Amino acid sequence: MISVFLVDDHELVRAGIRHILEDIKGIKVAGEAQCGEDAVRWCRDNAVDIVLMDMNMPGTGGLEAARKIVRYTPGAKVIMLTVNTENPLPAKVMQAGAVGYLSKGAAPQDVINALRSVHAGQRYIASDIAQQMALSQLEPQTETPFSCLSERELQIILMIPKGKKVNEISEQLSLSPKTVNSYRYRMFSKLNISGDVELTHLAIRHGLFNAETLLSSE
Question: Phi/psi of residue 52, each to 5°?
Fold first, then answer.
């Protein structure tokens, strides 16, 4: 029996995944959490095979939570579930200790296959994401400028082009507005840009987002 712990700040997403897994023989949902902090605490106190976790959550994001879970709960394996599949995210996900990577647009069977593969000791990366990673290795000259950012900076930068204001970001990530602004100015300096508009253009140019993604988020 494969025990799975679900982590996502949207209850509807957790309910949808739980509904899919409840009908699959050999898989059970052992528990749920809506943030990274709760996930880390739960995994320290409970045995579980796989943590299926959203990457972009308030407070401790999925990358940081994955790193802590892998460090403190060696028996648990992490599969990251996210809407963002563009570089440099796949590499960041695997560096954080995750052994699986799926987009939230994955078919139910892909999720089931990922759980079974990871439980069997294999890594599982969706085919389209794996292709992106392979191509990036073949073309190192196309490395994105976003690779220089920290996990927290990357977490914030994924929100700015979607129109999130400083107060919204600070509330969602449990940071003060002053801290969010400090991260913003630090990112702008690293990327050699001066504001949110330039950031959005840079993100689109390097494939971190596309115009359709941003329009659909409005």
Answer: -100, 110
pLDDT by residue (tens digit) across 188-198?
898 888 888 88
Could you state, in order of their start, the residue ranges of all structural domains in the chain? Answer: 2-137, 144-216
Cα 171–chain centre separation? 19
pTM over cut 0.70: no
CATH of domain 144-216: 1.10.10.10
- CA 208-212-218 angle, to 5 degrees, is 100
**CATH for 2-137?**
3.40.50.2300
Alpha helices by DSSP H, listed for the chain, are 11-22, 36-45, 62-72, 89-95, 108-119, 127-138, 151-157, 166-173, 177-191, 196-205, 211-216
CA distances from 192 to 22, 46, 188, 196, 198 (A): 49, 45, 6, 12, 10
